[in-house]
Amino acid sequence: MKVKEHKLEVVTFDAEVALISRYINSMDRALEILDAGCGNKWPLTLKVPYRLTGIDADADAMAIRKHTRSDLTTAIVGDLGTAQLPSESFDVIYCSYVLEHVNGVDRVLNNFLDWLKPDGLIIIRVPDRDAIYGWITRQTPFWLHVLYKRWIEGRVNAGKPGFAPYPVFYDQGISRAGIESFCQKHRLQLCETRGVSSYLKTSPLIRVVARAGSALSFGRLPWRHNNLLYIIRMPPSPSNA
Fold it and tell me: Which of 14, 45, 17, 38 is CA-nearest to residue 231?
């Protein structure tokens, strides 16, 4: 089924985090949260009580997370596509800048559906493969991604064990059409889709390159945002509907 994409609202990083926090806080109960592909940081400050389970395939990143933050109730080193977690065990599954690295993203998304409780939330943050930033990333070698993180974004540890970037696949399943089609197929409510701009202020040159690339594509590759936020709700169980 072809999905017609609606016009995309673009927000700042701070507004994105505030929107995510508002959805989670509105659940207004003690929560079990899965940080899926947790890496070494957690950006959310929540008002509701919660237990946080982290899972990541990178043992070095998990070690850094446990040493620097001590915020995980449970830490699991494992792959999101093959991990065996209990069904309906999480109220929220939070997945931030992970799915672009997955080849065969439907397998992971189906696991999320199995692990999520009825009326739970899936929150996905991911680069937009079809914006100019994502298109350039798909066309360039991985070593250049490391240099970009180090020289442009100033991340001195980029590429070292436990630190991004990681090789990318940009599966079609993480595109807007891919996520909207997945939600329709599984009768999920796609509550929010936002574009997020978090790269244009890193360097004046980046803005020039982004606008020029978008112009050369005749606007097919948008430049005003580089990332996407999806907030998805599982339907309640029939007995609670």
Answer: 17
d(CA 231, CA 27): 14
Residue type, position 140, single letter: T
**What token pair was written down for 42?**
């957690």
What's the mean per-residue pLDDT of the chain? 92
pLDDT digits (tens, 9 = 90+) for 83-125: 999 999 999 999 999 999 999 999 999 999 999 999 999 999 9
For the structural domain made of 9-236, what CATH number should be given? 3.40.50.150
Domain boundaries, the chain: 9-236
Q: Tell me the per-residue pLDDT of 59-89, one tens digit each, with 9 for 90 and over.
A: 999 999 988 888 999 999 999 999 999 999 9
Provide the token pair at 23: 């959805």
Can you tell me the distance from the alpha carbon of 44 to that of 22, in angstroms, rounded to the nearest whole number? Answer: 10
- 180 phi/psi in degrees, rounded to 5: -65, -40
